[in-house]
Each structure stands twice: as C-alpha cells, then as structure tokens.
Design the sequence.
C-alpha cells in the first residue's frame, strides 16, 4: 500500500492556501449578507409605503386605520330630543305648477256633518314629468332651374344641421359621457329607456367627434389665458392610449384649467407648454420642474409632508430624528399659514413667525445631506437644498399657495375616469377627454354651466357663428 509522505514546508504552504481560500469565501459571504440586508431594508421600506408617506393613492393602502375608541354617551342613535328640526321651505304659490283642492269631506264617525273652515294645510309634492323629446320635421323644398336644369335645395333654418340630433341633445350626450362618465353603450340604453330614442353606437361616436372639433379652438385659447395669471399649478398623471404609456398634463390657474395628453413626461413637453410663461409655478418635486428658476417656483408642501413622513420612519435613528424635526416644522408652518390665509395676521407677522422655521428646515436638510451618500434621504436633502428658495415663495408672493392641491383637484375627475375605463384607443379619444375636461373644470372654476356653454357652442357651430371663449 502506497502512503503519502508530507514534509513540513509543504504542509505549511497548503495551510496558507486553505486559509486564503477561507478568507476569500468569508469575504464573499460578508458581501452577500450585506447585499441581502440592503435588499431587505429596501423591500421593507417599500412595504411601508402608503398614501401618507409616498405618492401612492389612498385606495392602495392595505393597512386598516385604527378607529379611535370613543366612550358611549349613553344616548340612542339619530336625532336627539330638543334638536331643532330641518324642514323644506314651501314654494310661493306663484311658483307652483299645479294646485289641487282637496275638499271631499266624509261625515264624522259620530254621524254629524263636518263644517269646512277657511284654513287649509299646504302640502307640496315634487314629481318628475314624463320626458319626451321634441321632434321637429323640416320639410325642405327642392326645385330645378328652368334654364340650365340645375337642382336646388332650400336652406335649413339658422342653427339647424342635417344631423339627427339638435344642439342641446348633442351637448347632453357629450356631458353624459364626459362629465357623468357613462359609456357609449350605457348612454345608448339611457336614451332608449328614458326618452324612447333609439340611436346607434356609431352615431354616438360621431357626435363625440363633432363636439371634439367644436371645442378645439376655445380649449386651445385657455392656455394663453391661464398664462396671464400670476401663478399656475402644473401636474401630470399617467394615461394609457392604445396599450401604450402616455401622460395627461394639466395647467391650472384660479379661474381656468387646461388639459393635454402627450406621449412624454419629459422636459420637452413642459417647454412646449410653458416656454413663454414668466410668472410663478406651483408643482411637486419632479426633476423636470427644475426647468423653472427656484425664484419663481413653489414646491408643494403636501408632497414634502409625505417625504418627511417617510424619512421619519427610516431605520437609521439619525435620519429618523431629522424626519421628525422636519414634520414638526411643517406642522408649525401651517399653523401660521392658515391664520394669514383667513386674514387674521399680516404678511409681516407671517414672515416674522416663520423665520425660525425656515432656519430649522435648512439646518435639518444640511444635516441630512451629510448622512450616507448611498441613502435616498441624503439625496433628497441635497436636492431640496439646491432648490431651497422654492420652498418659501408663498411666504413672499401674493396669490401663491404652499401646495399643489389645486392641480390635483382638477385632475381628480380624470383619475376616477381612468379607474373605470382604463384607456383611450386613439388620438381623437385622448383629445376628446382632454378638451371636455378643460371645459368642465374651467366652468366649475368660473361658476358657469358647461352644458349651457356647449349647447350655445354647438348651436353657433351649426349657424356658422363665432364660438365664444370658455373663460371670460
């Protein structure tokens, strides 16, 4: 049997080799553990994201909010004894459509006659009348020239088209789809059930295209109108068209809102929309808004509150402490803003009271920027420091709000529409959604009736008259 003989130097050399291999393996394992721990922290952070600390909508929150335990008052539910009642005020007799006198008395149970008094009880009932569309037949004369035999057809009255629906019904159909979010098929069924009016889906589609064409000029005029204001709110949200990603933009002032669907969310769209705007912009922290100088930009504090909340929940105690201080500053800031907004304090007083808050926020952001560079919190703090003046524009400028809530409210109806119908299938569909949304949102801000405006616009289009602007 052969045996292997090892000399002492050979054994020591092999031991060194094994030790080096073990060192390399331990180093690789340390690196792997560190990588897994980092991934674990990131995944935990993502699990902790909700509508309070990120841009996720409240509908995506899975955590059930803990209900505050309230002590029972011992009272029964509903209206309490002694609570003043609320009653509908009767209409004046001149405003009532029909009056029915109820005088058919029966004899009293005792058998005696009932003597009628001069007094009576007024009882008013509201009822929906039977709805029937008014159908007008136009008997259009036709003729032929004696000389050249050319055929001639008489003209329809002004404001009447060769289509099957008039201006008001066309506008009603459009409002039902755009504002009240009926599908074409649901609108078709509604018209048949309530108006006994049969219409094909193709005709509904054609009426939408007509409204889209009519609204093109007045909606395009909204953007120059909005740019005349001292401040505008800008925001964008995702949109799907034909299975591809698009973006729905809104530019809104206090009195008008403009929507547009684009293929990009990039700076080139922002430049196209706002290249000639020289006043103040209110927006979130999305990087493309750095296109505007910080001196005429206001970063939304509602978004910052969510960012501060996320930082306050960080696993690192130093970063968490910075986030909590920033949240405290945000709370104190709005404690001063609301009294100013309600004209309870002057702007000078507002600046005086918020000066320590501005200083503390700056100190916190500077501390956060010195934390580990690979952490998101450090990058966030550095970014805010670079745009620090954009946090406080609302303190110095008139008509500037500290949040971008106005733009988000304008977008809300379309976000709800997106949840119901998911996407558009063509450029026309996206244009229709954007233009009708511009009309509806602007009418709401102007406190006017969008249906009435659209009816007049369609009527003027049929009569070949100028269409009035949406925003006056």
Sequence:
């Amino acid at each position: 049997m052969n045996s292997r003989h090892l000399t002492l130097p050979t054994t020591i050399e092999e031991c060194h080799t094994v030790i080096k291999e073990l060192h390399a393996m331990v180093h690789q394992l340390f690196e792997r553990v560190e990588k897994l721990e980092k991934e674990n922290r990131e995944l935990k952070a993502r699990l902790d994201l909700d509508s309070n600390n990120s841009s996720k909508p409240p509908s995506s929150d899975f955590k059930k909010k803990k209900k505050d335990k309230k002590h029972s008052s011992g009272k029964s539910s509903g209206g309490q004894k002694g609570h003043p009642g609320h009653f509908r005020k009767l209409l004046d007799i001149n405003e009532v459509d029909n009056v029915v006198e109820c005088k058919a008395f029966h004899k009293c149970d005792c058998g005696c006659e009932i003597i009628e008094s001069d007094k009576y009880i007024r009882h008013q009932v509201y009822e929906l009348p039977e709805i029937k569309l008014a159908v007008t037949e136009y008997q259009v004369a036709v003729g032929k020239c004696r000389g050249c035999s050319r055929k001639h057809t008489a003209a329809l009255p002004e404001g009447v088209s060769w289509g099957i629906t008039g201006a008001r019904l066309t506008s009603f159909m459009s409002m039902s789809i755009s504002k009240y979010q009926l599908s074409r098929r649901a609108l078709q069924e509604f018209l048949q059930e309530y108006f006994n009016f049969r219409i094909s889906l193709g005709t509904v589609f054609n009426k939408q295209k007509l409204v889209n064409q009519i609204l093109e000029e007045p909606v395009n005029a909204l953007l120059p109108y909005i740019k005349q204001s001292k401040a505008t709110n800008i925001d964008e949200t995702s949109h799907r068209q034909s299975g591809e990603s698009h973006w729905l933009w809104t530019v809104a002032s206090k009195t008008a809102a403009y929507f547009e669907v684009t293929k990009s969310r990039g700076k080139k769209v922002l430049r196209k929309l706002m290249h000639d705007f020289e006043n103040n912009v209110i927006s979130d922290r999305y990087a493309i808004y750095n296109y505007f100088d910080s001196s005429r930009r206001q970063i939304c504090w509602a978004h910052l509150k969510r960012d501060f909340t996320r930082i306050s929940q960080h696993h690192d105690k130093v970063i968490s402490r910075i986030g909590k201080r920033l949240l405290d500053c945000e709370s104190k800031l709005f404690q001063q803003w609301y009294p100013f907004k309600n004209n309870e304090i002057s702007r000078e007083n507002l600046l005086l009271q918020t000066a320590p808050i501005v200083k503390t926020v700056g100190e916190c952001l500077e501390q956060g920027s010195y934390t580990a560079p690979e952490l998101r919190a450090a990058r966030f703090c550095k970014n805010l420091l670079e745009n620090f003046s954009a946090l406080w524009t609302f303190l110095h400028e008139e008509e500037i709000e500290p949040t971008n809530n106005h733009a988000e409210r304008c977008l809300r109806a379309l976000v709800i529409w997106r949840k119901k119908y998911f996407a558009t299938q063509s450029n026309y569909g996206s244009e229709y959604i954007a233009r009708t949304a511009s009309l509806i949102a602007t009418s709401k801000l102007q406190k006017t009736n969008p249906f009435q405006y659209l009816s007049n616009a369609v009527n003027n289009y049929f009569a070949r008259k100028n269409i009035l602007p949406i925003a006056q």
About this structure: Residues 231-407 form one domain. The CA atoms of residues 369 and 378 lie 4 Å apart. Residues 8-47 form the longest helix (40 residues). The mean pLDDT is 89.
